[in-house]
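Figure S7 source data.
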Amino acid sequence: MADATMDRPVLRVLSGEAISPPPAWMMRQAGRYLPEYRATRAEAGSFLDLCYNPAFATEVTLQPIRRFGFEASILFSDILVVPHALGQDVRFVEGEGPRLDALEGRAQFEALREAGDPAIFSHLAPVFEAVERIRAGLPHETTLLGFCGAPWTVASYMIGGRGTPDLAPARALAASDPALLDALLDRLVTVQTEYLVRQFRAGVDAVQIFESHAGVLPDSADGDALKRFSLGPIARMVSGIRAEVPDAKIIVFARGSGLDGHARVVPETGADAVGVDWGVDLAALRQRVPATTVTQGNLHPETLIEGGAKLDAEVDAILAATAGLPHIFNLGHGITPQTPVAHVERMLARLRAGR
Ligand code: CP3
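Tokens for the predicted coproporphyrinogen III complex:
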């Protein structure tokens, strides 16, 4: 990996180097805003069929690289393949998002596969095959990112059975049976640490851990819910991964954790970089954290839909806030299906003009 680092701008930034203009990728860059994605998706069948078919998953992963030449490629999959591998029923309802059989108590928890059950990783074998195929199909200089969800975010879907704005079911379980929530988080820490180690062994260069629900957490007796439910479990994953892959590069995206939460991510998890959501003032964050901290983000996905002068101005503001500092250009959350492809082109032209 040492050799490839020098050739891959995203890995160089993750090692602390400032590059101008910064390398770029987009969360959800393989997705419904691309006509070629919609075509492959239609051919594959359901969303999960696409995730578990290495040839199709490789194709959609490579599509945004071919079209835009992003410096990083992210494995096409979903954070919910892990609950699926644990034996929970997972489906994606068209136009509605994910649906799981909600984990309401001990009985459903006990029905899950235990960490160490070989069936978990045989279920996920198509993901590792996709990683090998993607790496073989990528330009040498493109960084390949693997990923998974952070334990709290994945647990909140497992408990609620769907995305809910206030995560009421997961917070209720935390109040009624805190030991059960801890056991579920522990299971996810263990299984997903191995999952990311196996992604590295299959060929990813770096990984991102998505804590999309860092903004809504249960109450913690010690008053530090962010540490107890989010940064703590992530830190255990980071050290577990590094025990197996010592030079593993890790990005943590803790959406909704605010300026204070974002500033805590790198010191408290040991990650190499913090993914910044669109709600955080990037200039203020850069002033709060050491100059050596690697940031990633944070263009508002709605600005990308709007385009025009506002888009140019936001690209310029991100470049100004991160000039001379190690930064990876990205959105502050996933690109949405209604985004015009021409606006992505405009964003990259502005960025690559290096203003
Ligand atoms: O970023 C990428 O291009 C890689 C692929 C990727 C997907 N999901 C594909 C996907 C990644 C990294 C994810 C992560 C993910 N999945 C997260 C964390 C990031 C975030 O958005 O906060 C979460 C919370 C999920 C769970 C999930 N999957 C939801 C809530 C939904 C429905 C929302 C939607 O956009 O429809 C999905 C479905 C999903 N995952 C789609 C894609 C491309 C759309 C489904 C389709 O194509 O039919």
